Amino acid sequence: MKTILVVDDKERIRRTYNSVFTKEGYRVLEASNADEANDVVTSNKIDLMLLDIEMPDVNGTILYDVTKLFRKDLNIIVSSVYSLDDQRFLIKNADDYFDKSEGIKVLKEKVSRALSNGKHKKDETGGGHENRFDDAG
Prior knowledge:
Blueprint: E1 3-7, H1 11-23, E2 27-31, H2 34-43, E3 48-51, H3 60-70, E4 75-80, H4 84-90, E5 96-99, H5 104-116
Parallel strand pairs: 1-2, 1-3, 3-4, 4-5
């Protein structure tokens, strides 16, 4: 079973995505901020991250960069109220981008495509990274 991590500071968004993707047959984990996301990524095998940009303390652009330092193989879809062009400008190399106004059907298609494109590679380290965001600089 593929695992999706939903990183969003809005509980309503996390709850909605959790419900939708659980019904689609995925295991869904949630994080409301970068520290929680780091804990989840370092202690679980995550196949895909749905990442919001605007979050308190550490925003999604920084979380993306730090996550990719340790999990280059992790598929990340940016999920934001920002336009797709703005998302692409802020986070250059995400696997995909989702404007929350596009609707859940579009997100489901993007998630399915990201998880089936063969790009995701097994995490060779077993997920036991000890790196923390507060240690990253």
